[in-house]
Amino acid sequence: MKRQIFFSGFFLALSAALSYYVNSSFLGSLVGEKHVGLVYAAAAILAIILIFAIHYLARNFGLRAPARLFGLILTGSYLGLSFVGGSIWPLIFFILIYVSVISLGLLLDLYLENLSRDQETGRIRGGYLTTINVAVLLAPLVSGSILGGSAPPVGGFQSVYLLCFAFTLPLLYQLFFKLEETKLPAVNVGLREKLANKNLRQILKFDFLLNLFYFVMVIYLPLYLHGTIDFSWGKIGLIFTIMLIPFVLIDYPLGWLADKRWGEKEILTVGLVIAGLATLPIAWLTSNNWLIWAGLLFATRVGASAWEAMKETYLFKHVNASDVGVIGLSRLTAPASYLAGALATFFLLKIIPLPHLFTILALIILASVGASRQLVDTK
To answer: Residue 351 sits in which domain range?
Structure first.
């Protein structure tokens, strides 16, 4: 069933990623750029609540029924967002899409963990991440091509969401006709006992920080490139496609190295250093040369891909499928970081220019390098 999980993850990622880098501009057209973060904050609060609910659903109903439910909500919401105008309904559909993507991602993680052994965790997680990131790589080029010019109408955004809907259809097929029912194994060690492990607590902190990095990059980088540097959406799509190549090229090899050669700590530390140093110049770069931007952002993702692959490998070597609580906490870091980031940036942007968000982010990443060196490798 591993192949079916990989296919499901691919179509979930593709449908979601097609809109990742245009969501903030779409929401900005509805509520204004300064209030985009508040919409994400509302979505994050609901996602946090639902992650706790999934713990109950998975224990009592298995994984397939809630996966089908969130698949239907996701498909219906993309379809609604493609055709419904106004200001309230698009916001409601956006929030439903956000929480459905996170919920389905958690359920697929539980499916995959149920099939994984510790000695192959790095390769399985690296392969799964690579599958997802192939979809993410394709997405900005496609969405940028649809949006085209420098100031697309709302209808242009709706075309992107209609394509997102189309890619949820093969996802629904996988959820309803290919994935088997799976019951979670009995809990052997409670959540409190698991979190007594300081290394596990630390990797969850790195999970939170990585999602904070994604929050700033996904929401504010497109606004900066489009609104300040004045790149067209087509050019932004090309830049982001090049930027995302490292996730496809190095996730699986790094997972293999973590299993066979090196520990996770060393690779994670190098990833943090690269990501931090490459993020630092963003605030000061005003060139409209797209190749320079593509190269710089490519470097940020070399660091982020190493960081992501190692935190996933490290986490899933410390848990099994019965540890729904720990895996749920890991996936809780995404909405939690979006909530914290949305509230922080809402106030920060009142006192600093938008580009300096990247300076603050870079300094936070570099300050975390010392903590990564304290981790104990699983080897």
So the answer is: 10-181+193-372
- Write down the residue that tokens 């990443």 correspond to: 365
Taking the CA atoms of residue 319, residue 103, residue 254 and residue 307 in that order, the dihedral angle to the nearest 10 degrees is -90
Indicate whether 56 belongs to any domain: yes
Rounded to a whole number of angstroms, the distance between the first and last alpha carbons of the chain is 28
Contacts of 165 (CB under 8 A, 6+ apart): 15, 75, 78, 79, 82
The burial of 192, by beta-carbon neighbours within 10 Å (0-12 exposed, 13-18 middle, 19 or more buried), is given as exposed
- Tokens describing residue 179: 């994935």
- Give the span between the Cα atoms of 194 and 322, in whole angstroms: 12
Structure tokens, 193: 């006992």
- 115: Cβ contacts below 8 Å, ≥ 6 apart: 1, 2, 5, 124
What CATH number corresponds to the domain at position 257?
Answer: 1.20.1250.20
- Reported as a single tens digit per residue, the pLDDT across 277-331 is 999 999 999 899 999 999 999 999 999 999 998 998 888 887 776 677 788 888 8
Q: Which residues contact 40 (CB under 8 A, 6 or more apart)?
A: 98, 215, 219, 338, 339, 341, 342
pTM: 0.82
- Residue 305 domain-assigned? yes
**Dist CA 243 CA 221 (whole Å):** 12
Q: Is residue 377 part of a domain?
A: no
Q: Is residue 378 part of a domain?
A: no
pLDDT tens track for 164-207 = 999 999 999 999 998 888 877 666 566 777 777 888 899 999 99
| Measured distance CA(366)–CA(198) in Å, rounded | 21
